[in-house]
């Protein structure tokens, strides 16, 4: 098939699976994915049929067309697997996601395609094109394309097995929600709007779910320790025991893949094409984090424990189920800040408007409500414009539904390619609200989460204008992908920005500056604990992928790492590893969050603290980082924006803000 024919075939009205009935019919979804995969195979056939010298025009364009079709099928199968209302559609979407992954695995081991890419004449190719090809060829080599056919077939079978385990693991978390029952007396301390939404039945019992809008307030505000413990256990066992064996199977398969490819462990394989480079470099970084946070974590623990003992004589320790509650009580007493007091200023719709307005000003773009269809009536659709021209679209699926994914994430919908596809992305979240009688009052940490996820969205849209699908949007190194999200959440610090949208949902009163300052001071307390928690998750994900799976005892390693890194008392029966969803996506590389926090804070330090939205750093950041997508190495983007490599100093300052003279005085 000629290049022109393949390119033309990509611009179809049937670009959305749900418009073809895929959100309501398993058969329609299967047919839609089949059409995308057929186009993928046609592009590859055309590539392999090229005669004569290999060039970017006659080879790479066909390869990228194949990549685009595969990405389109995978993205929308993944979205519908997470959000479709009908379980039959979700089941079909999971099968389609597996089919796409199998196709991708076969492509990564296709020696004919690899040889064609190697043979291309790259004379005159742009730097972005050269980076795309170099990164693609590295991916092929890491996949084992240079092995003999028998070995390649074995690797492909192992990847298919790992994909199935990953999908099953995630689905069990998604559909494994639990409920607990409570009495009205046990809900003491929870906000009035929460109590209003949870009325007792005829027998006086109140049913609570493990969904975020039910779970998080209990763990933060409920004064009843037994209720917190019941909720904690239910939440952390919602995919146990079924996921225990599935996780072991996944780890064993990944290790077998690494061994076949000549790597000591999956962790070494998974970091080989990342900014970090190796598992050893990850451990060196974690040691730096451990050293930087140790003293602060000890100090925080002592302050909170002493405070709790003063409130509850005879208390010996604070366990894992009470950490959030006692931090909240400490902040109320020591900083005169009750996090419930700001919730009325953060109703969901106002927060949504505020986040959109912030991003529009920062990146000089416009958002317009769209009449485009989505997979569910509850989804809001927005079109993105720049200077009157539409440049993207995004979908906000922001509240819990039965069967929907229970976490907070951003997902590609259509990978953008300049002149071929307009980028589209989605947020799949579980914030309070969504009902006409529920204003959806958010905790301030929820607002930070919204900014975080919207940072991913902007990366997908603004980075989705590249020449090649293979380096568009999110397609950076995996350990650079959290930089845009963590950078945008720092804008929550700005007082004037907050007051533009933080208004009482009943009175319209603007959130007072004094309360904002208290909120920021109180919010700074606990950062060392956040770092220690990240160390725990990161070390767990790394260790599980950096040793012989046959020697792993999940309960032993989870407890041992927790007790060595976090000061709060362990609770037996905690099976968090069975619902640690990032083990499928990030695998060994959960360190990304902490590593990218260092970069993001250094980035944010380039903005004018008095006018972060108006200074020129926003335009530079957009051009040098977001718009690049994956067209440059992450290391190069850091150097382009900062003029140097990232430094640890901004992170250290952020980490130690809680122990400045003002805070020490407040807690003395």
UniProtKB/TrEMBL annotation:
**Pfam families on file:** Peptidase_M3
In alphabetical order, the GO MF annotations are: metal ion binding; metalloendopeptidase activity
Enzyme class (EC, first level): hydrolase
Per its UniProt entry, which superkingdom is the organism in? Bacteria
Cofactor binding: number and manner: Binds 1 zinc ion.
Which cofactors does this protein require? Zn(2+)
* Transmembrane helix in keyword set: no
InterPro entries tied to this protein? MetalloPept_cat_dom_sf, Neurolysin/TOP_dom2, Pept_M3A_M3B, Pept_M3A_M3B_dom
Q: Which family does it belong to?
A: Belongs to the peptidase M3 family.
Which residue numbers delimit the Peptidase M3A/M3B catalytic domain?
Answer: 219-653
EC assignment: the record states 3.4.24.-
> Which CDD domains does the entry link to?
M3A_TOP (cd06455)
* UniProt keyword terms in alphabetical order: Hydrolase, Metal-binding, Metalloprotease, Protease, Zinc
What is this protein called in UniProt? Answer: Zn-dependent oligopeptidase
> Which BP terms does GO give this entry?
peptide metabolic process; proteolysis
């Amino acid at each position: 098939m000629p290049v022109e024919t393949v390119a033309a075939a990509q611009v179809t009205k049937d670009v959305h699976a749900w418009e073809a009935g895929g959100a309501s019919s398993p058969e329609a979804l299967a047919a839609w994915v089949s059409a995308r995969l057929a186009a993928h195979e046609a592009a590859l056939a055309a590539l392999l049929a090229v005669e004569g010298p290999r060039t970017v025009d006659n080879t790479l364009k066909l390869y990228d067309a194949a990549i685009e079709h595969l990405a389109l099928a995978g993205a929308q199968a993944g979205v519908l697997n997470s959000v479709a209302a009908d379980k039959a559609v979700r089941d079909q979407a999971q099968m389609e996601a597996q089919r796409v992954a199998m196709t991708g695995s076969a492509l990564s081991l296709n020696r004919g395609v690899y040889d064609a890419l190697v043979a291309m004449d790259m004379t005159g190719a742009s730097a972005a094109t050269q980076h795309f090809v170099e990164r693609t060829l590295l991916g092929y080599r890491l996949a084992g394309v240079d092995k003999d056919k028998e070995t390649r077939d074995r690797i492909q079978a192992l990847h298919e097995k790992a994909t199935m385990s990953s999908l099953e693991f995630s689905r069990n978390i998604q559909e494994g929600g639990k409920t607990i029952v409570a009495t009205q007396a046990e809900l003491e301390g929870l906000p009035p709007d929460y109590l209003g939404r949870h009325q007792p039945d005829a027998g006086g019992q109140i049913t609570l779910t493990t969904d975020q809008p039910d779970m998080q307030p209990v763990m933060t505000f409920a004064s009843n320790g037994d209720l917190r413990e019941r909720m904690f256990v239910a939440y952390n066992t919602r995919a146990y025991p079924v996921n225990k064996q599935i996780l072991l199977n996944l780890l064993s398969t990944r290790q077998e893949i690494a061994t076949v490819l000549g790597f000591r462990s999956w962790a070494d394989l998974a970091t080989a094409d990342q900014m970090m480079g190796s598992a050893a470099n990850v451990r060196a970084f974690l040691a730096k984090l451990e050293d930087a946070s140790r003293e602060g974590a000890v100090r925080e623990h002592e302050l909170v424990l002493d405070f709790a003992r003063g409130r509850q004589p005879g208390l010996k320790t604070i366990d894992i189920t009470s950490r959030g509650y006692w931090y909240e009580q400490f902040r109320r007493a020591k900083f005169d800040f009750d996090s419930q007091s700001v919730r009325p200023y953060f109703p969901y719709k106002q927060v949504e408007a505020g986040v959109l307005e912030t991003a529009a000003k920062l990146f000089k773009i416009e958002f317009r409500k769209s009449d485009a269809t989505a997979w569910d009536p509850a989804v809001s659709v927005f079109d993105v414009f720049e200077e009157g021209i539409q440049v993207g679209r995004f979908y906000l699926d922001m509240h819990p539904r039965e069967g929907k994914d229970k976490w907070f994430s951003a997902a590609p919908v259509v990978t953008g390619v300049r002149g071929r596809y307009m980028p589209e992305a989605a947020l799949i979240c579980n914030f309070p609200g969504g009902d006409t009688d529920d204003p959806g009052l958010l905790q301030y940490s929820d607002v930070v989460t919204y900014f975080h996820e919207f940072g991913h969205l902007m990366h997908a849209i603004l980075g989705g204008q590249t020449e090649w699908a293979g380096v568009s949007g999110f397609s950076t190194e995996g350990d650079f992908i959290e930089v845009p999200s963590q950078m945008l959440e720092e804008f929550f610090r700005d007082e004037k920005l907050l007051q533009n949208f933080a208004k009482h949902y009943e009175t319209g009163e603007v959130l007072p500056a004094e309360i904002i300052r208290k909120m920021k001071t109180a919010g700074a307390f606990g950062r060392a604990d956040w770092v220690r928690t990240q160390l725990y998750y990161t070390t767990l994900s790394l260790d599980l992928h950096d040793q012989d799976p046959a020697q792993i005892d999940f309960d032993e390693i989870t407890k041992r790492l927790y007790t060595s890194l976090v000061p709060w008392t362990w609770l037996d029966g905690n099976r968090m590893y069975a619902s640690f969803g990032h083990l499928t996506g990030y695998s060994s590389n959960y360190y990304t969050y902490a590593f990218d926090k260092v970069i993001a804070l250094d980035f944010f330090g380039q903005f004018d603290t008095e006018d972060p939205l108006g200074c020129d750093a926003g335009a530079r950041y957009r051009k040098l980082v977001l718009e690049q997508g994956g067209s440059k190495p992450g290391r190069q983007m850091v150097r382009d924006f900062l003029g140097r490599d990232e430094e640890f100093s901004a992170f250290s300052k952020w980490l130690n803000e809680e122990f400045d003279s003002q805070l020490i005085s407040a807690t003395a």
